[in-house]
Amino acid sequence: MIQFAQVSKRYPNGQDALRNVDLEIASGEMAFLTGHSGAGKSTMLKLICLMERATSGQVIINGKNLNKVKRRKIPAVRRDIGMIFQDHRLLFDRSVFDNVALPLMIAGYDHREIGRRVRAALDKVGLLSKEKNTPIMLSGGEQQRVGIARAVVNKPPLLLADEPTGNLDPELSAEIMKLFEQFNQVGVSLLIASHDLSLLAKMHYRTLVMKEGRLVQDQTDQMFEDEALKVDTMSETSDHE
Amino acid sequence: MNSDSNSGASLNQGASVKNKLKMLLRLHKLEAKRGINEILDNPFSNFMTVLVIAIALALPAGLQILLDNGKSLSQSWDGASRISLYLKLDLEATQIEQVTSQVRQNLAIESVELIMPAQALNDFAERSGFADAISELDSNPLPATLIVQPKSTHSSPQASEILLAEFKQLEGVEKVQLDLDWVRKLYALLQLAEKAASALGLALGLAVLLIVGNTIRLSVQNRREEIEVVKLVGATDAFIRRPFLYTGFWYGFFAGTLCWIILEASLIWLQQPVANLAGLYQSEYSVNGLNLSQSAKLLLFSCGLGLLGSWLSVGRHIRQIEPR
Predict the structure, then answer these.
(1) Among B179, B212, B233, residue at a domain's last position
(2) Is B233 on the interface with A (CB under 8 A)?
(3) Contact at 8 Å (CB) between B55 and B192?
(4) B245 lies in a domain?
(5) What is the ipTM of this complex?
(6) What residues are paired with A64 via a beta bridge?
(7) For residue B143, what is the domain's CATH number?
(8) Taking CB atoms and an 8 Å limit, are B234 and A78 in contact across chains?
């Protein structure tokens, strides 16, 4: 599903965000990406959804080499990726329903189909009763769930989440993670960037640890050997790169 | 994909072509509505924009209406380029008859009307309101006049000149005058003014494009965050452009309507003075406003300008916004 081959990214200001990253995430897999801020987590997600381009190396998503995707074709790539953000990125001048319906409207679905799918997605995240509200009337946890409903409404094969629980208390975080697990159980691939180590420790999924633009650990259980990293990461809670 | 068939995880091919078209239509309706709301949400500042555009359109359009009126006026007189022959004061009635028949024999003449001195005096007394003063006169100061209508084949400026020279040489003719010489001059002047109006129209049309373009640019900047989000969930540039194009279109529509109202109101305001003026010339003339097809053209042109202005502006500015 996701393949990185010798990927490096240098920003125009000279900062090396990624250095020779090799990575493969299989289809249907759920993985966490962790590391302290500036380690390259966000850059990695940005390369996958073409918000940034790799300076060298190959990023292959769904068998598509992103180096060869022209500007005009970027929207088509993004439609196959559901994205979830720490700050939700909802449109506050529209109802919850319209926010979730956005990807379907863009893809040109029939309005009855849109109604059906949006309600199914809202039902999944437990917000069906709030479809007419505007996001501003919702709590942070509910807003995040609207963001998740929007990401999955189009049934993309891949979900990316950038610090999805960054602003939420542990209980709500656990709920969000449970949702992610449910999506994973029906075959969706997930890559979740998070430095909430206590949360990761409870979940037994593959965890990729980044440090200074390199992938330093890739393991399927949560035995963090790098104690220094642990301290680093715990000390920062709600920043985003 | 290992669980493609029974899961929600499938590649998105979107909907079928027919459904896509149906959805596109709905989207257009939605965006059109949203475009209007965008304008109505901020009525004061948007009304200013619309007013500026309307005035920019009303200036050349109003000038064009006046020119059209002037042209139709001068053209209706142009065909009737009559020649007046003022006969000498001391001619006897028989001599007048003689001159008249001489003029009649000219092959270039369509018709001749003879106005005897007494009749001319009566007419003058009637029209000028100096009846009392005129009745005090000892003798009639007015000459007999022949109003000559040349054939249409001989009404060109050169032919008229030749006729004029011929009549001048007739015995008993005091003075020959081409009545509507000034109409021709007016006509030439109008043609010049029309060129100037076109230039003005071009300049103001360009100004409208810039006004709309700039307004749309600000609107794009105001909705930067929204555009980023919509781009992140896979919107094409065309999708993002659409509401802004509609907003531009509505600017044009409202401005065109307002421009029409301004023009009609000005014409109503002008009607009374024009009627008074026309009355002085014994004419029923009234200013012609915009007919239906001209009104439609004005509106269409205005909508087109709004659309074009926003199209020129929106593509460039949307491309500059990329999600971060």
Answers:
(1) B179
(2) yes
(3) no
(4) yes
(5) 0.86
(6) A61
(7) 3.30.70.3040
(8) yes
